[in-house]
Amino acid sequence: MDLPQKESARDTNNSLFFSPKDSEQLKDALHASKEMPKLCGSHYPISIPFIVVNEFCERFSYYGMKAVLTLYFLYYLHWNETLSTTVYHAFSGLCYFTPIFGALIADSWLGKFKTIIYLSIVYVIGHLIKSIGAIPPVGDSTTHVILSMTGLFLIAFGTGGIKPCVAAFGGDQFEAEHAQARSKFFSIFYLAINLGSLISTFATPALRGDVKCFGGDCYALAFGVPAILMVIALVVFISGNSLYKKFPSEGDILGSVCRCVGFALQNRWKHRSGQYPKREHWLDWASENYPNKLIQEVKMVTRVLFLYIPLPMFWALFDQQGSRWTLQATRMNADFGGFSVKPDQMQTLNPFLILVFIPVFDLGVYPLVKMCKFKFKPIRRMAVGMILAAVAFAVAAIIEVKIDETNMSEPVAQESLLQVLNLASEPVEIEIKDSESFSQANLRYQDPDYLKLPVKTENENFSFNMQYRGMRSSCSHALSDRQVYSLIFYQNGTKPSCKLVKDLSQKPWKGLAALRFINAGSEAANITVGKADFGSVAGNYGVSAYHTLERGYYNHAKCRIGNNEFSLALGLLDFGGSYTVIIERESEGKIPVLKSEDISANNIHIAWQIPQYVLISAGEVMFSITGLEFSYSQAPPSMKSVLQAGWLLTVAFGNLIVLIIAQTVALEQWAEFALFAGLLFVVCIIFSIMGYFYIPVDLAGSPEFINGIYEQKLPSGEIMLHLIEKKTKL
């Protein structure tokens, strides 16, 4: 530092001048240069537990809310699966686009500590608004959508804004020579993330489904508990204020990077003719206006960001655990003997497996690979993680094919499905227009099957010719295409009669069972099954509306006819099944019932999802933890948050890929899974080739600048002179 620079840092009275911001930076710099207390004599600063607990609570808050989000869209806001998936991934993408703003605020203005605090407050406000939007009496459906979207936007800005700061802030607490301890910190940090995720993804679905409020699932409570955890996260983080090592913000780092890159491109274009000497790197064309240190740091950042280009494809698969995989779980059998799991609770497998796999990989797999003298470098680990995720989706595609084999085929255009429920005592011969005649036995002896009927017009009349006990009769009904019907055949005195009713065309949502009643008695019947009140079902083959119930055995349903009350034994109503129960006439003080399973219950067990969760969780350990540490280790000290934001930005683009494919590619679900698996295999090959030519940078122990201050301990006078020099250059 030369004398003129020192003198230029003085005012007209030859006294040093500092703005309030400079004074604050000086205070932070002096604090950062001190030797901070360690945990039990180790290399771990005592401030680390506050950061880890903060991350645990914040991830509980985020993943707990997100675990029930898809079902909230489906069953509370009543959106369809495509729109629910689209908004889910749009929100997830926004959560990972906003880190770039958090990094900009932290590195250019507030510093990491204050950025985390202020954006956490925004985060809490978003949770509160989201919870209020889930309270039915608060406005109409439009109000609920507005509040929900506003809350989600604030949550996305809050969680995304602090993401690049918390991990980098934790890394800042370690000395340069303690790189190994810092590496272990990132594993502990990731453990905290997944422990919070594990507990919350099990707890919030239970709060949603097991606690009833306002006459249904309690989404307000499921969103309110994560809001409380976010408040705790904020309080814990502030509590460690005096223990943190805080570095002052460097100025407009991101702006300087962008201006440096822009000037290099512009200057290179101006001197594109061959008469000018070539330069080693295209960024060297910025050397006329920018210092060599900045250019070298930008080179480091751009090399890593270029390597990140293929990475979004991994996240496109990974984040579908909360959307497509949860929807897949709703079509599976979740009975484990004494208990059953909810579809959105299957997501707890991922954080649970992460908690198991992290020590297994750190203490077992990686040391074993090292003993075999195989260099398992970070890029190779990430490539293997991508392969495992692709295999997980190939397994998911196979499971989806098996599920589809058990589903009732939905009618297509110009087609209807029809079954005959024979409630008479003997078989009936039925002839339908343009179809072969067939015999349908009594429902007690033979379950009906659906027939496909061609429907050429919007409402086409069909004539049903019936022969029963030598008597012939007919009835006519209009059928519409893409609909499913039941033709109820019964004996009206001595004359055969029929009645047409509309059936469900799809499996019930959320893995619930659907149930309706047909009252074959002469008097009206008031029926209650569990908490479902079917009201009064008219006699003489009146039909109730469908109600959905939790899976279970219902052998004590209540049926009141006149002044008499009877108990109905309905048996098992299984996951995803649709049932029609026929109440027959009273006999010997009892009400006999017949039960028809119109849509088969889910018979592919939800445990078959475990292999795909194991594969993608193992892939996450190798890909995500390695990438998180790699992003920190390869970043120039002044741009840690910027490169962390770049890493998180790959998650955002991954969700964008899901949005594009979900909206533009009309594929069956198994084919979509297979497409994602194939795309990731191809991208993995590209990434491996790019990684082969990448040379990692080792910054450990080098006297690189961290926010304008050497990592080596500097005397306070040198720190002051450095800040004076910085003020002069500005």
UniProtKB/TrEMBL annotation:
The keyword Nucleotidyltransferase does not apply. It comes from the Eukaryota. Coiled coil: none annotated. InterPro entries: MFS_trans_sf (IPR036259), Oligopep_transport (IPR004768), POT_fam (IPR000109), PTR2_symporter_CS (IPR018456), SLC15A2 (IPR043381). Keywords: Membrane, Peptide transport, Protein transport, Symport, Transmembrane, Transmembrane helix, Transport. One of its GO terms (biological process) is protein transport. The chain crosses the membrane at residues 60-78, 90-110, 117-139, 145-166, 187-207, 219-238, 300-318, 349-369, 381-399, 645-666, 673-695. It is found in: Apical cell membrane; Membrane. GO terms for molecular function: oligopeptide transmembrane transporter activity; symporter activity. It is a multi-pass membrane protein. CDD domains: MFS_SLC15A2. Gene3D superfamilies: MFS general substrate transporter like domains (1.20.1250.20). NCBIfam families: 2A1704. Belongs to the major facilitator superfamily. Proton-dependent oligopeptide transporter (POT/PTR) (TC 2.A.17) family. Interacts (via extracellular domain region) with trypsin. This is Solute carrier family 15 member 2. It comes from Microcaecilia unicolor. The gene is SLC15A2.
